[in-house]
UniProtKB/TrEMBL annotation:
Name this polypeptide is given: Beta-glucuronidase C-terminal domain-containing protein
Domain of life the protein comes from: Eukaryota
Pfam families, A to Z: Glyco_hydro_79C (PF16862)
Classification via Gene3D superfamilies: Glycosidases
Organism this protein belongs to: Heliocybe sulcata
Length: 549
């Protein structure tokens, strides 16, 4: 039968009401992750725009942005990474006290601006880490462009002694699989993994003798930080992993789904609003990830390399994608991931700094909210302190995604994260009875939402937002004229579980118990807990609800 438009609409209507039935398996992931899973990567040349240009002029909004993340994951230090092409191309000058960063070749490619810097940079990084509750830890890039470079060990020593406990690991070499195509090994037709191993021997031996002593004694080197052309499994099994296993702390990768380096690109926004594509992307290097003997870290990623794509990277859709991809990485063996940010004006940035060091005037971009959501999902109220396991719930509909987050020790479910990529219509998710440990039958649903997937600013997280807020401090969404996705307690104590509604587009974090006041807030009495009726309908689910598993 050829359906008329009206007949089609009549058939389609009941389906729209069907809830996606969630089934919560035992976790199969073997990788424990912490609430600080999703960190921020900064391109070296532009740290002054965010951290400020001296310890006396750290922009308060930047500290507020970091503190929001820290309060969502109080038990683990924030992850910050300083690196990128520009770090590989820059020089440490022990005598340089001012400026913080000296741009030595302003004519250089915008994607790779070399600078010189001195000890004040590490004083600044330490001060910022100390200002954030729970602290921060840094990944610091070290160049491998000239393996026998005498500057590299001097920089490593300065970073190690300057950062102390705030030092996490050194990323030795940035994307060496691009050295050939970027012309960084002009004498070699093809820079190979064997060449790389030789270079690693030279560079690590030089790290035995730095102003801070033998850096290798700290066992905090990371690599191979490949992005594109090499196979991780081949690098690991080439002898590299075995040769340097005593030095290595992390196995690092950097990967973008596409690039915008040459003025054209492959995928439109729809690509990012599709969970199937997220899974495919996260399966990159899966064999190597299995072969890794150290925690695997995505030390740089974002929606598109070379600055992102205006109209895609700066949308709410990209924020949803970032959260989905981060949780997917957590479920397939990554231990951490760092979302990259660059100079003001770049479309994938988390926040836009004003052109001067004013204490206000910052603009929050959608991807920032993904970090808040992921740290909350992985550790709300300190519950993730002992680590969590993340599991894809395999909903089987690319316009939706679901994850369960478990306590890694007890395997109790700590939260569910539910994605609805649809641009206009809410989705119902049916929670089975007893998802969470007994005694916590009521659940709270905290929603990240925006009016449309293309929205750039009007984003709310629970009942709060950073829309039109210049100082990085969350305010009530209502006061900025936003509806707010909400943060509501739902009675899930009925025999058949309950339904949770997630607006389209939107992402919900569902956690046991009543609405929590924000850390630093005025306490639980502020929170409003509603009966289920308005938001979710308690159903005798059983076989009555159409499953979509
Ligand atoms: C801006 O930076 C200058 C120079 O670093 C400093 O003197 C001034 O106090 C800063 N202003 C603010 C508002 O931070
Ligand atoms: C900054 O770099 C430029 C170009 O290399 C150089 O001429 C200048 O002396 C440097 N300034 C400082 C303060 O190091
Ligand atoms: C590295 O530099 C030192 C000092 O110049 C030199 O003795 C050594 O042979 C060089 N090593 C390599 C592998 O080029
Ligand atoms: C270069 O070497 C890599 C392995 O290191 C290999 O995968 C690639 O095919 C080689 N390319 C050429 C053009 O020989
Ligand atoms: C490096 O790894 C290769 C391959 O596993 C091995 O043959 C070689 O002995 C190792 N070299 C050192 C110095 O450990
Ligand atoms: C730091 O200096 C750079 C270069 O002069 C400038 O663009 C940036 O706005 C400064 N950062 C702050 C926070 O003022
Ligand atoms: C973490 O583990 C310790 C020791 O087993 C336990 O006492 C504590 O309650 C756990 N904390 C959380 C948040 O699970
Ligand atoms: C999601 O992407 C896959 C593969 O790219 C495609 O086959 C599928 O139709 C897409 N689904 C939706 C809902 O866009
Ligand atoms: C989402 O919905 C808005 C408002 O209806 C519309 O303008 C926009 O084109 C839609 N975007 C996509 C990617 O479907
Ligand atoms: C669930 O919420 C309802 C309504 O707020 C409340 O009466 C009930 O005591 C709560 N149940 C639990 C186990 O907290
Ligand atoms: C969030 O906003 C909704 C709608 O305005 C309201 O019903 C609810 O009580 C608020 N929740 C909190 C935690 O403030
Ligand atoms: C949050 O944590 C505090 C301290 O551990 C605890 O007293 C409170 O019951 C927790 N709230 C929820 C909703 O789990």
């Amino acid at each position: 039968m050829r359906l008329t438009r009206a007949a089609y609409a009549a058939c389609a209507a009941p389906l729209a009401l069907a809830a996606t039935q969630l089934s919560i398996p035992s976790p199969s992931s073997k990788t424990t992750v912490y609430p600080n899973f999703l960190g921020i990567s900064f391109e070296l040349s532009f740290v002054g725009n965010y951290f400020g240009n001296s310890t006396d002029a750290i922009p308060a909004p930047f500290l507020a942005y970091l503190s929001n993340l820290a309060s969502a994951s109080p038990s683990t230090p924030l992850r910050l990474r300083i690196g990128g092409n520009s770090m590989d191309d820059s020089t440490y000058v022990p005598s340089q006290t001012n400026p913080l960063l000296n741009f030595t070749n302003p004519q250089a490619n915008a994607n790779d601006q070399p600078v010189t810097f001195g000890p004040p940079l590490f004083e600044l990084f330490s001060k910022v880490a100390g200002e954030v509750s729970g602290g921060a830890q840094y990944l610091i890039g070290l160049s491998l462009r000239y393996p026998n470079d005498t500057n590299m060990p001097v920089l490593a020593g300065a970073a190690q002694s300057g950062l102390g406990n705030y030092m996490d690991a050194f990323l030795l070499g940035n994307e060496p699989d691009l050295y050939t195509s970027h012309g960084q090994r002009p004498n070699l037709q093809n820079y190979t993994v064997n060449d790389y191993i030789g270079d690693y021997w030279v560079a690590t031996e030089n790290l035995e003798n730095t102003p801070a002593g033998n850096i290798l004694n700290n066992h905090n080197i990371a690599g191979p930080t490949i992005c594109c052309d090499w196979d991780l499994d081949a690098v690991l099994t080439s002898g590299w992993q075995g040769n340097f296993s005593d030095d290595l702390k992390y196995i690092t990768l950097q990967h973008y789904p596409q690039n915008n380096c040459f003025g054209s690109y492959q995928y439109q926004l729809n690509y990012y609003l599709n969970h199937t594509n997220v899974k495919t992307l996260a399966s990159w290097q899966s064999q190597g990830i299995q072969a890794a003997a150290k925690p695997v870290v995505m030390s740089e990623f974002n929606s598109a390399s070379c600055g992102g794509i205006p109209g895609i990277s700066d949308t709410f859709g990209a924020a949803m994608w970032t959260a989905d991809y981060a949780l997917q990485m957590a479920s397939v063996g990554y231990s951490a991931a760092y979302l990259h940010t660059r100079e003001p004006g770049i479309s994938y940035n988390l926040f836009e700094a004003p052109s001067s060091n004013a204490s206000s005037g910052w603009t929050t971009m959608p991807p920032y909210y993904s970090l808040l959501l992921v740290s909350t999902a992985l550790g709300l109220n300190g519950t993730g302190a002992n680590g969590t396991l993340v599991q894809d719930l395999e909903l089987g509909d690319a316009s939706q995604a679901g994850y369960a987050v478990y306590n890694a020790v007890s395997r109790d479910v700590l939260s569910l994260v539910l994605f609805n990529y649809q641009n206009a219509s809410a989705a119902q998710f049916a929670l089975p009875q007893d998802v969470f440990p007994s005694g916590s039958e009521n659940v709270t649903v905290k929603v990240l939402s925006a009016p449309t997937v293309t929205e750039g600013y009007k984003v709310s997280w629970g009942n709060e937002t950073l829309y039109q807020v210049g100082d990085g401090k969350l305010v009530a969404a209502g006061s900025e004229g936003l509806q707010g996705g909400g943060e509501l307690t739902v009675d899930c104590s009925g025999g058949g579980g309950c339904n949770v509604s997630v607006p389209g587009p939107g992402v919900a974090v569902v956690y046991p118990g009543e609405v929590l006041a924000r850390p630093g807030g005025t306490g639980k009495s502020d929170a409003v807990s509603l009966r289920a009726s308005a938001w979710a309908v308690v159903l005798g689910l059983g076989s009555a609800v159409l499953g979509m598993i």
